Amino acid sequence: MEIDVADVQRALGPAVSSYDVEPLDPHLRIHSITGGVFRVRTNVGSCVLKVIRRSTDATPDGLWGGDDEVHGRNYWKREWLAFASGLLDNLPGLLRGPRTLLATEPVPDECRIWMEDVAGRTGKSLELDNYDRIAYAAGTTHGAYASGSVSLPDDDWLSRDWLRGWVGVCKQFVEKAREGEGWDEPRVAQVRALRSRIVSLWDARDELLAIAESAPRTITHWDFWPSNLYVGESGDVVAIDWSQVGIGGVTHDLDQITLDTVWMQIRPDESLDVLEELILAAYVRGLRDGGLDVSAAQVRRWYAATASLRYAWLAGGQAAMAADPHAVVAQERRLGRPFDAILAAKARVCERALSLGEWALGSQS
Prior knowledge:
Layout: H1 5-12, E1 19-23, E2 34-42, E3 45-53, H2 78-84, E4 95-96, E5 100-107, E6 110-116, E7 121-122, H3 128-146, H4 162-169, H5 171-179, H6 189-192, H7 195-202, H8 205-212, E8 217-220, E9 229-231, E10 237-239, E11 246-249, H9 255-263, H10 272-289, H11 296-311, H12 318-322, H13 325-335, H14 339-362
Parallel strand pairs: 4-10
Antiparallel strand pairs: 1-2, 2-3, 3-6, 5-6, 7-9, 8-11, 9-10
Helix pairs in contact: 3-10, 5-7, 8-11, 9-10, 9-14, 11-14
């Protein structure tokens, strides 16, 4: 990775005289717009450099990639704009982004974000009580926007209708659940049992979207999973990877610290009851302290509808994955567990997502 010493000095100060560059987890970079993430160590300190490039390539499942369209779910330049605009340096409440040190556009169709090198517990190193802190911090920030005490930004580049876009892309998994091959494979028995419920819930997706979208508007991260979250020694909460940031609803980030914590094998054997009870209660406290007067029952219904719309359909793609040896190896390499164990955790998540959606449809508004 070639960088200009002048940029390092602009980011960290003129006293920089030497530096080295270390790539961070290149095997985890699945988005085509991510040109690399690097730690830059110098004689006066360190920072993180993220390279973002214009691309419209998508991952094989179609879930992630890049968009040229500014309103697209994966608009390629969105994260750079979030840093360059000052949005992430001025979030209300206790959730924050890494401090922006420098934002550059060295060549056409490439942007670079120089940011604070965040320290703290993250991913699998997070302890259970850290989730309470994360949820509370998110609540204070979301509550400040949703209550109107802080005005929502209206920049065109912020994502909108993100959840609807996600549901639209997930139609492929519903079709595989409905008609796909490979469901006789014994290893997918746990998800095979969910097929009819997936199809039934899909038919009610518009009602679920109406419930989710009835939540008060706020700033949403949309990739709020444990590996993008840091809790420092002093208890401060920092979220990284703001490539999806936009206008969404209260609770729309919560499923990433409840269901995705198990789905992505961060705490694969953790009780979903425990995670939800801990996180939703802390989030409600945060919302109220952020200025939004809201009941726990309202929060649970918005959360339930959103979580179901994010995860219920994903079960439909598991039979095809299990039948593809390359996909199995890729999953085991990325998540660090045998495929059958990975699939068992994912089946628990999908079953919970279906139950949440069914409950939301039957609950009172």
